[in-house]
Task: structure prediction
Amino acid sequence: MLARIGKTRKLALVAAAILMVLPPASVTVRAGNATTNMGSSTVFFDDFSSYTPGLPPIGYLLRGTSAITPTVEEVGGIGPAYRVLDFPDLPFLYDNRWALKDGLTVSAPYTVTAKINFQESVADRAGITIAWNDQNENRIDIQPNVYWQDVEFHVTYTGPVTSNVQISGPATTPGGLQFSAGTDYWLRVSATSNGPGQGQVIVYWSSDNIAFTPVVTATGLADLTGLVGLGTAGPHLPHVYFDDLKVDYTVAPPPPTDTPVPTATPSPLPTLPAPTWWAGTACDSYHFRGQTRFFPTPLAQYRNVVACSPRPFWAAPTPGATPGVDYDILERFYPRAVGEYEWECVEYAMRFMYLAYQQAPWYLHDNHAYEIVSSYRGHILAAVVPGPGIFPQPGDVLAYKATRSNPFGHTSVVTASSVDAQGNGYVWVIEQNGSPTGRSVLRVTNWQVANGNVTGWLHYPGPIVTATATPTAASLR
Ligand SMILES: [Ca+2]
Result:
């Protein structure tokens, strides 16, 4: 008999009501190792029949002690139908050995089921591991212990999520789960989550793969996302046969913000002339540097119209700037033009409209960018009100509404757009004082741009002319 001194376990202090609702019954039976995608519901099933006997199964990560190696073996007969995953016995070692399905990262809700057959009654635990993180070996091990006749539920978690794990159920007490060596059982782990720190796992046990009885419930789990697999643990790693590993999981559609943003197609529109009023070709460098303590930085360009930074008046985003000492630099595109502050968002929009459409800058009350559309009284551009079937086009100038955090609102210039017939897609913009890169991608949903934050835009309805000369004051209206 092995020494049991020092063995620790967490016993349930709370007798929780056990849910009698069973997870989806196993209905998928396939030979080999197959992943079947049934819409958003997917099944991974592996009966270990497709691997070479005597070797570890291909496609599994082996982790833990290298003193034993789980291999595929033929048990009770010859041929693929008899193949199981065999974990050898390893006495007198407080350690673990895992075979985790490589690449199969699942997030709750999911259910993992495996057939398990202990080959000895004097050893310890073996079962299912979920939420495996291969970087730090964070995991949850759910392992029936053949010696203690119970189910051990061990959480290893080193991440930042606060959790309050509560483990309960009849099988948490030694003797609470009666089972025998040399007999097939099915262990099932059903994971659900209401968010970080609110994961729940129900452990089921079956002797016929039909009727599953809940034996352990765990709540308040930090994180249920990760790889799944099979494993054994000490102090005496048992000799175990595993078979028919089955993972039922849902491929959740990614939230909108996680959708990969397609790449905008390059603008076919002609490039525009450089600003004649700039002293220095890169962001009015001589003038700007001469008036401030800062070197200007080009961020991005659209049709050769460059978005620049910084904006010294606003100290917070400009390292080294001091409110009351550093100011935005007023610049006029031509004599007696309405002045624009370098490098505020309005300056870029006005500069672009001047160079592209010969539209003279106009006055916005207190630099309120949000009124760049509503204040427009000219005749070169058309003010567009958002609505079904309408979305911004390259070269349009957007107005963003004022918010609590930004009472000035915002403006940007559209460089590309792609919107489908349902009004869903993207608008790419270039901007100053709106993003570190000078570029942003706005999501269009049901014809609303940026959740309705874009309240309208100015559109040039005329033919695009290849501008070869800078407009003059005399040409402006
Ligand atoms: Ca098998």
